[in-house]
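Dear colleagues,

As part of the handover before I leave the project, I'm documenting each prediction I ran so the next person doesn't have to rerun anything. This entry is a single chain, and its sequence is reproduced below.
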Amino acid sequence: VSHPNLVAIYDVGDAGDVHYFAMEFVKGGSLADRLKHGPALSRPDALKLRLKFYARARNLVRNFYADKNSL
């Protein structure tokens, strides 16, 4: 699947007791970084994020939205 809002996963595996996955590099930080260090989100951006989190909470989408894994 290729989509501008999805990060490509290239490989998944394990090396002994360590599990890993290799994914596409996305320039910039996470949402958690932006909320902690960056400028405040614009009202439209904040609303879009709220709708994503609401959709996840209501099981309307299967993706896991959290500030630490949102880019």
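The first strand starts at residue 9 and ends at 15. The mean pLDDT is 77.

All the best with the project,
I.
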